[in-house]
Design brief:
This protein has 130 residues and is an alpha/beta fold. It has a single domain (3-116), classed as Macrophage Migration Inhibitory Factor (2-Layer Sandwich). It contains 2 helices and 4 strands. A 4-stranded mixed sheet has the order 2-1-3-4, covered by helices on one side. Helix 1 packs antiparallel against helix 2 (80-98). The longest helix is centred in the last third of the chain and has 19 residues, at 80-98.
Length: 130
């Protein structure tokens, strides 16, 4: 049920952006038990001045203009260990397949209840049944 928002620099190639999305989807299915074909992603490209991050770094991590912001809204209930493994798989996979530094892979997870989704038809597919 994830919805993935990917915010990147407009300087990234289409192939790189596609690869980032593929890595995230692969990590969701292999690490976080997301069902096959549950791939909903929104990619937004930004001018350099629209991706704001601390130039002096944060928590000992420094960033570059290649920063990739990833926000995943998904069903609540995954353990801390699963989330940590997901973070590692995404950062390492993006680095291995695109060369983007792991330090530049910024991820936010938003846990929601299953009834907060409608996949079409105005229905609550995963909500309580009458």
């Amino acid at each position: 049920m994830p919805l993935v928002r990917i915010d990147v620099s407009s300087s990234l190639t289409a192939a790189t952006v596609r690869t980032v999305g593929d890595v995230i989807y692969s990590a969701m299915t292999s690490v976080a038990n997301v069902p096959e074909n549950d791939k909903f992603q929104i990619v937004t490209r930004h001018a350099g001045d629209e991706l704001v991050y601390p130039l002096d770094g944060y928590l000992g991590i420094t960033y570059s203009p290649d920063i990739v912001f990833i926000q995943v809204t998904w069903n609540a209930g995954r353990s801390t260990d699963i989330k940590k493994a997901f973070y590692r798989a995404v950062a390492q996979g993006i680095h291995d397949r695109t060369g983007i530094r792991k330090e530049d892979v910024w991820i936010s997870l938003v846990d929601v209840d299953k009834e907060n989704w409608s996949f079409g038809n105005g229905e609550m597919q995963y909500g309580p049944k009458p």
